[in-house]
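In this supplementary section we document a worked example of the pipeline. Step one takes a protein sequence of length 197 as its only input; no multiple sequence alignment statistics are reported here. Step two produces a three-dimensional model, which step three serialises into structure tokens for compact storage. The input and output of this example are shown verbatim.
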Amino acid sequence: MKAEEKERLKMNTGTTEWQPQPNRENNLEIKVLDMHWVDENNPNDKKDLCLHGKLFIRIGNEILSDFEDGSWTLSAASLFLLRTLKMDYNINDFENFLIPCCGYDMIAEENEPFLVLGCATGIEWTIQHTKDGFVKHISQKGSEVKITEEEYRKIVFEFADKVEQFYKDHPRILPADEFYLRGYNGFWREWRKMRDE
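The serialised model returned by step three reads:
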């Protein structure tokens, strides 16, 4: 692990030696381990709008992502997870991965659903809301957990709030191009609506 990665890990988790909670079969964990802009070699590029980072994700005893598994687009992932607080999610429902590697095209067109498009890499699982107030998470390998809607909301809000705070702490220069500006503003418009509901 590089020194700057250790520093970011400590900032996000309070320790340089990240350890997940002890395995509990009926448990979901989504933890931010690291946050950075897409170009790690140019952290002061204020035109970089794409927040990336490392995540720890566990469904039951199955680990879907850890520090060594690369970087994901945290901005898009936060929006997608916020959407799932009110709706079920099946693989590829958002025309991207639930936790995407990339989110380089944000498309906000009038009378069309907002899209974040990326590459062919990411993390997927199915999310189902039950009639008795629980949320089931089912991995592609079949691991399954069931947690309360309140527990799930807390997990997602904690993640989303870290993403928002990173943007607040690192102001961006907005793009001059109308298409990209509309996409960026469309992202935050939906994000804010989902977070405040």
